[in-house]
Amino acid sequence: MSPTFTDAILEINPSARFGYSDENLDYLEWLEGTTPIAKADIIAKKKELDELYIKNEYQRLRKIEYDQLNQFELMTDDAANGTTNHSKAILAIKDKYPKE
User: Fold this and answer.
1) 21-31 pLDDT, tens digit each
2) pTM for this structure?
3) Distance in angstroms (rounded) separating the CA atoms of residues 19 and 21
4) How far apart, in whole angstroms, are the C-alpha atoms of residue 84 and residue 9?
């Protein structure tokens, strides 16, 4: 799931207490004990988190496919049979979703 303004606020101040509706910063209310964060700072942090999310898409796509493999069985079979099916499966996923 892509980052939200809530993620951005908590990245800036993990102990922030606030409330708002529908990810609309115009209705953001800071609760007692929390120093308000400038709207521009929240927007900038969200943009940074969005860019990081996009940059790391390959990791999420790889994980989906890694999770579909029965890796322990592949490794056990490879050890018993002298094969390299596990390594080949992992390399195929890495080739399909390369690092940037």
Assistant:
1) 777 898 899 99
2) 0.72
3) 7
4) 46
